[in-house]
Amino acid sequence: MTAPIKPAEGYAFAYLDEQTKRMIRRALFKAVAIPGHQVPFAARDMPMPYGWGTGGIQVTAAILGPADVLKVIDQGADDTTNAVSIRAFFQKTAGVAVTTRTGEATVIQTRHRIPEEPLKAGQTLVYQVPIPEPLRFLEPRETETRVMHALADYGLMHVKLYEDIATHGHIAKTYAYPVKVEGRYVMDPSPIPKFDNPKLHMSPALQLFGAGREKRIYALPPFTRVESLDFEDHPFERTRFEAPCALCGATDSYLDEVVIDDRGGRMFVCSDTDHCETRREQGHRGALLGETPNQEARP
Amino acid sequence: MYVSVKGGEKAIRAAHRLLADRRRGDRAVPEVAVDQIREQLSLAVDRVMNEGSLYDRDLAALAIKQARGDLIEAAFLVRAYRTTLPRFGHSRPLDTAAMGVERRISATYKDLPGGQILGPTFDYTHRLIDFTLMVDGETPLPTRDETVEAGPAMPRVIDLLAQEGLIEAEPQAEAGVEPGDLTRTPLRVPAARDLRLQQLARGDEGFLLALGYSTQRGYGSTHPFAGEIRIGEVEVEFEVPELGFAVPLGAVTLSECQMINQFAGSAEIEPSFTRGYGLAFGQVERKVMAMALVDRALRSEELGGEATHPAQDQEFVLAHADNVQATGFVEHLKLPHYVDFQAELALVRQMRREHAAARAARRTTSDDVYEEAAQ
What we know:
The complex is a heterodimer.
Chain A: H1 18-33, E1 39-40, H2 54-63, E2 69-74, H3 81-94, E3 97-98, E4 107-111, E5 124-128, H4 142-150, H5 155-168, E6 179-181, E7 185-187, H6 197-200, E8 206-211, E9 216-220, E10 226-228, E11 255-259, E12 266-270, H7 273-281
Parallel strand pairs in A: 2-3, 2-4, 4-5, 5-8
Antiparallel strand pairs in A: 1-9, 6-7, 6-10, 8-9, 11-12
Helix pairs in contact in A: 1-2
Chain B: H1 9-24, H2 34-40, H3 42-51, H4 57-66, H5 71-82, E1 100-105, H6 132-135, H7 157-163, H8 193-202, H9 205-216, E2 224-240, E3 245-261, E4 274-281, H10 285-298, H11 314-320, H12 323-331, H13 338-374
Antiparallel strand pairs in B: 1-2, 2-3, 3-4
């Protein structure tokens, strides 16, 4: 964990002015009160580009307090460039403590993953969302999709999933896999792999979703029922990997495929870098590290 | 150990150093100053003020310098600065009829009260590269006449038509209704005209130009005439609640375009001309003309027509006009997507396996059929 530092001068704590934070918090309250429902909010232009997580950044800025410990991941990793940049932004503007340890963080901002280590009560996971509308690619018009949500008219989505089964024998959706929240709203969980979908269900942590360009906020309060859409005879299936992590030997984590040469060589390693490092510290090692004791491992 | 594909803080720092170096370019060439950009690249400054939604010539010039001349990047810098500014309220409606006009032309009347004033326009220049600008940097300059003469009154062309009742009445805001602001309230469609015009004024010039152009080529024709284009300074007044009267804040340079469009009338409305309106900061004639075409196209349904073409479609136009948003989302594709791509890789492999298996099964079946037939 890196200790708090003095925030940059000339800006409000965590960049956004208090009026904007209040507006975002109001939207967050409404979102928590109606799980899975997309609440419009007046997203601001941010100093990062749209598509780089401006929605998540605004949500984080609105909920962050001086005592918080922030973790930022992109693709599961703390050291991806955009995660580094967002973490540095909040260090600069809010001076909060930051960490790469999932267990130490009170606020975790994420793009495309849910950490492998189960989240606890009191933690908040903030998702960066590109397209909040799960029906968008079935119906491009907001005026139409708004009505469909109001009427809980999700026939179009079920037909799409059925057509997948008719064509491919299974649902051909591997990420941003739609879910139903508390039996009411169909929600886009952001482009997390469907591997992560079961972690949305009954999570003790608060989960907040921010879409800056599309100006929408939605939420899953702790212990919310979240079901991945499926059919009785074609139940939802989690992605499984054939090989364990080459570094830590984990068999239950989401793996990145890494190309190691130009002759088709591949290796699979944990996408969640904190999970992988923690396991290696505990003495686990994968095929690549062999049977020799890990040099990096702590005693 | 594999070579990590994941970047880090060091890489970012190095990239920023390199960026600063490339921005400066050859050190033997004098550095360009912000006031030079403001004075000599003033049309670029105007564009950045519009798309950055902030009237500040110095800030826009600085942003252009920092962005190495990338105008969308410069508009982005200005937007990110604007977002930190408090909003005190809105000015009184500007009176463009009282504009200190530098340019004013009408394509609908040969002559009119106040006359046609060409002003500083490229319109009738021959587009020949002027090499004297390169050799010693300057062409002989006209001496500036700094005396300000009060010009003749210049009524707006559209008001002349309105006197005759030939054009639809100017829509009036309802009393007590605040003008909308889509930077403070999320835009919902259908959106009222104030919000539509705001989005168009902030919108990308190229996008509006293409959309306006498309209406001229049959994709939602509006039969337009350039009733009037005027450019000049207009005073901005702000009503201070504590004082109870309006105080002048200063003057802004504006371009305004009033398009006059044919309208055959509908069952309820008698035939008359209709309005398309464009207004933006600085000298941005192309922008306000395109804006006026698109504004009118977006009124198609209101005037009893259908919204069948892109320029008539509010959701399409309003959702895609903002170039800071557009460039962000297009360019975010260069961020890592390997988690999702991994999932897709696995799916494609699975589908290929299944496809191969199904084809093998079919082949076996058809072989059987062939053998049976042969027997």
